[in-house]
Design a protein that fits this description.
- Helix 1 packs across helix 9.
- This protein has 9 helices and 9 strands.
- It is an alpha/beta fold and 300 residues long.
- The protein is globular.
- It is 30% helix and 22% strand.
- A 9-stranded mixed beta sheet has the order 1-9-8-7-6-4-5-3-2, sandwiched between helices.
Length: 300
């Protein structure tokens, strides 16, 4: 397992980019300049989509590089919290991706809300079902437990829609998420490791339901089987252990992360990279982690 502490001048830019989002306002509007600029090296189109029960309404932001698709199709990176993710992209990053070899298709799974974060939708979509009854998310009081429904939507409707519109290399697909999105990424890895070739979980909410997402860890080796899978784990060393808790300001990963790292270490077919971002709290980790996986082309 590779363990990296991100440092140097590159981190200064990430800290500056994310500092203003350390305590995001739940009513913060979506702002995404790259959708309006024609000179980024990427062209974005949008597609509407509803959940199977018609209760949640999505907007896909599909960013296609200007460079021609490779013979096998573009590698693709699916981004959760798509409104916030698209807002974290910038012209410099997209130009650099497009100018390099193997530029990825970017698919941000957003919401029709004008807000940066759709709290009701993400609370339901990104949390696993852990009880047989109607499930309520303790921190927010919102309905939860729809992770498998969302992953079905992603696998059965979103992926085919994208693959019909753009040539995609189905052997190079990445799923990225932050916070509750990171929780969903881990749930996908632990229950459907063949759905993607790379899973990127930033600041996953491991505290949720007392670590319920980690319960399938013991069977991970059997789940991975003959698949070749990559996992990139990322966190800021100034993050709190849970919502509203004090910042750790320490290199220690915490009990839940240690359990996760131990559980994924040495699993045949699973390549694990763990990265610590000095000085970053929970909010700034969203743009920092997204820039990291794109700039380092973890989807290769």
């Amino acid at each position: 397992m590779k363990h990296t502490i991100i440092s140097g001048l590159a981190m200064a830019a990430l800290i500056s980019h994310g500092a203003a989002q350390a305590r995001p306002d739940p009513q913060q509007p979506m702002v995404a300049p790259v959708l309006e600029r024609p000179d980024t090296g990427y062209g974005f189109t949008t597609r509407p989509l509803d959940s199977a029960d018609g209760q949640r309404h999505y907007r896909l932001y599909i960013g296609r590089p200007d460079q021609p698709a490779p013979a096998a199709g573009y590698p693709v990176v699916y981004l959760l919290d798509g409104n916030a993710a698209v807002g974290s992209l910038d012209q410099t990053l997209l130009r650099r991706l497009n100018e390099g070899a193997d530029a990825p298709l970017i698919v941000a799974i957003g919401s029709t809300t004008p807000l940066r974060i759709d709290r009701p939708a993400r609370t339901f979509d990104y949390t696993p079902q852990v009880t047989g009854d109607t499930q309520i998310d303790a921190p927010s009081g919102l309905p939860s437990g729809g992770a498998d429904q969302f992953l079905d939507l992603l696998d059965q409707r979103i992926k085919p829609l994208v693959e019909h519109a753009v040539p995609v290399d189905v052997k190079r697909q990445t799923l990225w998420g932050h916070s509750y999105g990171g929780l969903l990424v881990l749930h996908a890895l632990l229950t459907r490791p063949g759905a993607f070739q790379h899973y990127a979980a930033a600041s996953p909410s491991l505290w949720w339901e007392n670590g319920a997402v980690l319960e399938p860890l013991d069977g991970l080796a059997d789940q991975v089987g003959q698949n070749k899978v990559g996992l990139t784990l990322m966190r800021g060393d100034a993050e709190a252990a849970g919502p509203g808790g004090p910042a750790r300001s320490t290199q220690a990963p915490g009990v839940a992360m240690e359990r996760l790292l131990k559980g994924v270490s040495g699993v045949p077919g699973l390549r694990v990279d763990y990265h610590v971002f000095p000085g970053l709290g929970h909010g700034p980790m969203l743009p920092a982690s997204l820039h990291y996986i794109l700039e380092n082309r973890v989807y290769r």
